[in-house]
């Protein structure tokens, strides 16, 4: 019983303080952040194609080279998707390891498999812009 009285008294004190501060809908002012800059998104990679070497079971994906005027893209990261479109399942980005800086990527894939590959351009703020999904059939 004593706890209920204490809780009721505290609730009343809060209600009185809110009313004195301008009502229950009053919200304290928040200072706007200063020195915040927006980072432009990197342009999406284009021109994705692949080749498959059945003897080594290696896939090489290539894409258009980075435009010389592109000052936003710091590199690329490979990813995979659950299907040929984002409606078919989620896409994942490999964020560990070094950035890809060229315009090709080689990986192992057994014969008779289908893989949904997506390439992501990364900017200095580590934000990603994805390419179209490339369906790789071996």
Report on the structure:
The structure is a single chain. The mean pLDDT is 85. This protein is an alpha+beta fold. It has one helix and eight strands, in the order H-E-E-E-E-E-E-E-E. Strands 3, 4, 6, 7 and 8 form a five-stranded antiparallel beta sheet that branches. 14% of the residues lie in helices and 30% in strands. The termini are far apart. The radius of gyration is 26 Å and the shape is globular.
How confident overall, as mean pLDDT? 85
Kindly, what is the distance between the CA atoms of the first and last residues, rounded to a whole number of angstroms?
Answer: 73 Å
Radius of gyration: 26 Å
What is the N-to-C succession of helices and strands? HEEEEEEEE
Outline the biggest β-sheet: 5 strands, antiparallel
Number of helices: 1
**Tally of strands:** 8
Roughly what percent helix? 10-25%
- As a percent range, the share of strand residues is 25-35%
Which class do the helix and strand fractions yield?
A: alpha+beta
General shape: globular
Short account of what is shown:
The protein is of the alpha+beta class and 138 residues long.
What is the element layout, followed by pairings?
Blueprint: H1 2-20, E1 49-53, E2 58-62, E3 75-81, E4 91-93, E5 104-108, E6 114-122, E7 128-130, E8 134-137
Q: Keywords, please?
A:
single chain, 138 residues, alpha+beta, 5-stranded antiparallel beta sheet, 3-stranded antiparallel beta sheet, 1 helix, 8 strands
């Amino acid at each position: 019983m004593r706890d209920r009285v204490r809780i009721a008294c505290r609730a009343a004190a809060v209600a009185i303080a809110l009313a004195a501060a301008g009502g229950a809908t009053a919200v304290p002012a928040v200072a706007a952040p200063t020195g915040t800059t927006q980072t432009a998104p990197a342009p999406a990679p284009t021109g994705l194609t692949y080749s498959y070497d059945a003897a080594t079971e290696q896939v090489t994906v290539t894409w258009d080279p980075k435009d010389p005027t592109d000052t936003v893209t710091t590199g690329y990261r490979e990813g995979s998707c659950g299907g040929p479109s984002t409606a078919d399942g989620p896409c994942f980005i490999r964020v560990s390891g070094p950035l890809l800086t060229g315009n090709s990527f080689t990986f192992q894939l057994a014969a008779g498999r289908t893989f949904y590959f997506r390439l992501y351009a990364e900017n200095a703020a580590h934000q990603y812009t994805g390419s179209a999904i490339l369906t790789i059939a071996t």
